[in-house]
Amino acid sequence: MRHISVIGSGTMGNGIAHTFAQFGFDVSLVDINPDALSKALLTIADNLDRQIKKGTITDSDKLHTLGRIATYSSVADGVKAADFVVEAATENEAVKLGLFAELDRLCPAHTILTSNTSSISITKIASATSRPDKVIGMHFMNPVPVMKLVEVIKGYATSVDTITTIIALSKQLDKVPVESNDYPGFVANRILMPMINEAIYALYEGVADAEAIDTVMKLGMAHPMGPLQLADFIGLDVCLSILRVLHSGFGNPKYAPCPLLVNMVAAGKLGRKSGQGFYRY
Ligand SMILES: NC(=O)c1ccc[n+]([C@@H]2O[C@H](COP(=O)([O-])OP(=O)(O)OC[C@H]3O[C@@H](n4cnc5c(N)ncnc54)[C@H](O)[C@@H]3O)[C@@H](O)[C@H]2O)c1
């Protein structure tokens, strides 16, 4: 298990590529958008510089890490040599089903296919392939090089071998894997997204302004970041997609996304990545 292909080089894909390369894996980073690939390489270099400043890595670690990452705008070229794939493309079921059918066709027979999805059913994603036993959720947290957790999601047909391999792989990256069964939002987002949605409702209803809401949660609940700032960091489009999966998956109105979130996404206010969300960047 030396060669990993990461599909999607956005917020999560660049962090996943960075982390695997730092721990000695050969990484093919794939995105259909060439601009996203160039931006990802710049972000990885900046984040490695930050690690050098903190004294956690050396200049030579930075060079070796960057040297292990190759970029591809064609999925076929980027997955030829993959021992395993981490898919971190847009949070959209149709996109993921199409991608996994393609990955199944293009990857070697032994390749394990993982998805970094925040909420979409791993069982459903696996059903687009002829190897559902080798499909599993590997849910990294943002920012990937820093955050310790990997939520490992077992689909209906995921084999024990695949689970054991992904747990061991997570530990090789100095992460802490936690297993979860395959229900909408798994554990992390089933709990996090209703909190973020409620914070957006509080803003929408004029209970308090964004800064006040975040301050209450930071100073009152010892959260390192307020829910609205966290939503900006995650991406408001990603939050909306996850809430829609929870809403339709459980059929429970308590997960209905706040109309303010829906409007902000329609207006292109996606948070940090677009320069504006609940705050300006
Ligand atoms: N943003 C977060 O904090 C966070 C945290 C954990 C998990 N996730 C999950 O990670 C995944 C990626 O999220 P993100 O925030 O990095 O999204 P993003 O919008 O920042 O990046 C997605 C990238 O995927 C690329 N892409 C789309 N379709 C593709 C295809 N067919 N082939 C190759 N590349 C393709 C896009 O060009 C884009 O660069 C989603 O499933 C999301 O739910 C996100």
Which helices and strands appear, and what pairs or packs with what?
Layout: E1 3-7, H1 11-22, E2 26-30, H2 34-54, H3 59-67, E3 69-72, H4 75-79, E4 84-87, H5 93-106, E5 112-115, H6 122-126, E6 135-140, E7 149-154, H7 160-172, E8 176-181, H8 188-204, H9 210-221, H10 227-234, H11 236-250, H12 259-266
Parallel strand pairs: 1-2, 1-4, 2-3, 4-5, 5-6, 7-8
Antiparallel strand pairs: 6-7
Bound molecules: nicotinamide-adenine-dinucleotide.
Nicotinamide-adenine-dinucleotide (NAD) is lined by residues 7-13, 30-33, 36, 75, 88-91, 95, 99, 116-118, 139, 142, 234-235, 238, 273.
Fraction of residues in helix: 40-55%
What is the H/E string? EHEHHEHEHEHEEHEHHHHH
What sort of overall outline do the alpha carbons produce when their principal axes are compared?
globular
Structural class computed from helices and strand pairing: alpha/beta
Low-confidence stretches: none
Q: Strand order across the biggest sheet?
A: 3-2-1-4-5-6-7-8
Q: Quick one: biggest sheet?
A: 8 strands, mixed
Distance between the termini: 39 Å
Number of helices: 12
Question: What portion of the residues fall into strands of 2 or more residues?
Answer: 5-15%
List bound small molecules: nicotinamide-adenine-dinucleotide
Number of strands: 8
Compute the CA-based radius of gyration.
19 Å
Give the averaged pLDDT, no decimals: 97
